[in-house]
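Reopening this ticket.

The earlier resolution said the output was attached, but the attachment link was broken on my side. Pasting everything inline this time so it's all in one place.
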Amino acid sequence: MSSVLVISTSLRAKSNSDILTESLIKGAQDAGHEVEHISLKGKELKFCIGCLVCQKTQKCVLKDDAVWIVEKVKNADTLVFATPIYYYEMSGQMKTLLDRLNPLYPSDYRFRKVYMLMTATEDEDYVPEKAISGLQGWVDCFEKAELAGSLFCGGISDPDEASGKKEEQDEAYEFGKSLK
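Inline output:
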């Protein structure tokens, strides 16, 4: 099977997206994938300064945890981003990371499939649209990649609430099993 890199972007303790990510990872492993998980908790991510040096060197001038995360993303076959939805959009730390993945643009990256797992307090169908659109915009910059799927689990708010949501955990597990 393929190597799957799962990046959890929630910084909250007992995060609901992290709880569902655990189910996703189990599903992906049960489907035969090799899975690596990175959490942005405790990581230093500076904002992109737009210097574009990375377009020539494929290296960022900023020195923080994004440098090694870029290498992990570059060498994965499949990417999964897990994020809480804040104000109808991906988390700020996820957007910061996407901006910092700019050195990959001119590189020979391996990933072809990109997926997204989202949680939110709100449960309406429109809630994840802007977050999906934001990730689609990033994926569109990588002509060999596609946004292959997403899973939205709404109606989950309080820390650790997802641990009591069997239906959502099962959905995340099945989503993980379906990764290509």
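Reporter confirms the inline version is readable. The chain has one domain: 3-177. Helices lie at 16-30, 54-57, 66-74, 92-100, 129-139, 166-177.
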